[in-house]
Amino acid sequence: MFSLIKKLQELLSKLKKNKGLFFTTLSLLSIAGIVLFMYLIMNMTSSIKKDVYVSLSNNSAKSIDNLLASNKLLCDDISSVILAQDSVVNAVKSDNKEQIDFLEKKYNKLFNKKTKYPLMFKFYSVLETKVNYRNTINSLIRSKTQLYGIEVQASGVYVTYVRPIFDNANFIGLVELKQSIHSLKKYYEQKNSIFMFMMNKKMLVKLSLKSKTGKYKNVISQYVVKQGNYSSRFYSTISDLDDKTFKQSLKVKYDSDDKYFRSYKQVTDINGLDIGLFVFADRVEKNDGFVSLVDKMVKSVTYVSLGLVISILLFMF
Hints:
Layout: H1 2-17, H2 19-83, H3 86-93, H4 97-110, E1 120-125, H5 135-143, E2 147-153, E3 156-167, E4 170-180, H6 185-190, E5 194-200, H7 209-212, E6 216-220, E7 223-226, H8 232-239, H9 243-252, E8 254-256, E9 260-268, E10 274-283, H10 290-316
Antiparallel strand pairs: 1-4, 2-3, 3-4, 5-7, 5-10, 6-7, 8-9, 9-10
Helix pairs in contact: 1-2, 2-10, 3-4
């Protein structure tokens, strides 16, 4: 240790005797130190920015899970109130089609005043043998179980809730409550955020011609969006990405540009099939948003670092 210090002292003494070499060496060491300092600062801010973005992406995923869970509880409450009515139980038990039709119209009107995405009600009787129900309903009639999740039906994509109806422990039918998946965007609009559902193109075969013809637009890769439900100005920013960049975005579950910070969550249906993506976004210029704060933080640190470097260089020369 002492020998190393002695050698350094000897080297410093030699450099001082040669002032040109001394100042050149000092300048090179100073510049190397500045470069190292800049690298560490930029790496630190980049790491913080990444951590914040990952956190925002995770929060978006949690928010939609919580929203869907809350929606299920709401469906539990609404269906419990409806099934407590003797008129409903009697109509389903006797397969009284006229009364069932009346009740469906009644509840559809009661819960859907001035809304773009209505909550739709439907009753199914086990005595009905002439109507061909979709596979999901036939399966639930056999299993007499409850179901909740996202389902691609002939008329569209829905958040679907189906509950068995019993009369004195006897299974008599089902009640279904469903709402368009696009209705979920209302929750995010209230928070001044952006929500979009992009459907996997493979799911288009499950839609009827009436439900899909001229209504879906290609966005990127294998994903389409239902026109009229979301801003083309927003989803065009995703269309501008190349496939390689988009695949990387899906891998890390987020991306950003000069307009939006976007996060992605895979959507699976009641059968566990991949049917599309939930896209969440915040505008970068949103003054009170985390994205804006992080952007300002990174810029501030960069400006301070550059100012410090310039000051050091001026002091040296």
